[in-house]
Amino acid sequence: MLALASILSEFGLPYIRCSTRGEIVEISPAARRQLGDDDTHVLRELTDLARDTAAGPRNWRVPPQRSTRPAEARIGMRHCGALRVRAVQLSTADGETEVLMILSPEPPDHVRNLFESRQLTEREREIASLLSTGRAIPEVAANLSISVHTAKRHTEKVYAKLGVHNRAELARWMGQLSQV
Q1: Domain termination residue (choose one: 77, 106, 135)
Q2: For residue 93, how many C-alpha atoms fall within 13 Å in the half-sphere facing its CB?
Q3: In whole angstroms, how far apart are CA 94 and each of 55, 151, 176?
Q4: pLDDT above 80 for 9
Q5: 165: domain range?
């Protein structure tokens, strides 16, 4: 688990490691930035998800060495719409079991509706959401597990469809929408 967590951290991906009892073991710097001021409310929901995820595999009789199908949840946040969370129970090298949760932001509903009216694809919406939080294209690419070249092409399409020219304009555009 620690090797996986260090790889996720190296790529700048937001993740949280929890014990099967729902106790937080580690919060990556990227996850800490994403949580912002919402962390009390969100961490409570994440620890509940960790306990639920840990309870599932024992009931399904999955061998502890194998990862299980990820559990998914959507957690509302005050400042950025919602977080999509994927959680999976994994075994550590010393035989312990932990829950690894990977976080990705979702824009607020009114932003999502406007994205749809501008005919942005799901991937373009993800790119726009990440870029508007100040992330650079290589960081966006790593977060979405795509090449930097692909992230650049999606970014160009997002800018063209929304009529913006850079991340600052995109952030302002999305900030204006969140005040609607």
Answers
A1: 106
A2: 5
A3: 20, 38, 49
A4: no
A5: 109-178
State whether 24 and 102 are in the same domain: yes
Q: What is the pLDDT of residue 63?
A: 43
Q: Which uninterrupted H or E stretch holds 97? A: strand 97-106
pLDDT of residue 84: 80
Our count of domains for the chain comes to 2
Q: Give the whole-angstrom CA distance, residue 16 versus residue 104.
A: 12
Q: DSSP letter at 11? A: T
88 sits in which H/E element: strand 81-91
Torsion region of 163: left, alpha or beta (phi above 0 gives left; psi -120 to 50 gives alpha): left
Task: Write the Ramachandran bin of 87: left for phi over 0, alpha for psi from -120 to 50, otherwise beta.
Answer: beta
CATH, residue 10? 3.30.450.20
Higher pLDDT, residue 131 or 4: 131
Quick check: pTM over 0.90? no
Scanning 61-166, the segments in alpha helix (DSSP H) are 109-117, 122-132, 137-144, 148-162
**What is the mean pLDDT of the segment spanning 44-68?**
62
Residues ≥6 apart with Cβ < 8 Å to 45 = 73, 75
Give yes or no for a contact between 115 and 128, defined as CB atoms under 8 angstroms apart: yes
